[in-house]
Predict the structure.
Amino acid sequence: MLFRSAATFYNLLTGLLPRDFARGKDPLLVVLDSDVIPIRKREASIPKPLAAVLDHALSVDPRQRFQDAREFRSALVQAVR
């Protein structure tokens, strides 16, 4: 759920998805075989603290992501202050 929330923020800020889904490629294989593109590579004007939070939330390894919504929210609030 948190991954989807972070992906939604990513899309709202960039107009793009966190991965490139090439026409004709199986979306599941894209997710399994490719990394998330760091948000500042898509939109360099995004503040570094906010980018760090979203990139962390979109980590490929679930153990490296925020573990709950409270932790994610706290990091977002700190990043936009």
Remarks:
- Residues 15 and 68 are 26 Å apart (CA to CA).
- The chain has a mean pLDDT of 94.
- The chain is about 55% helix and 0% strand.
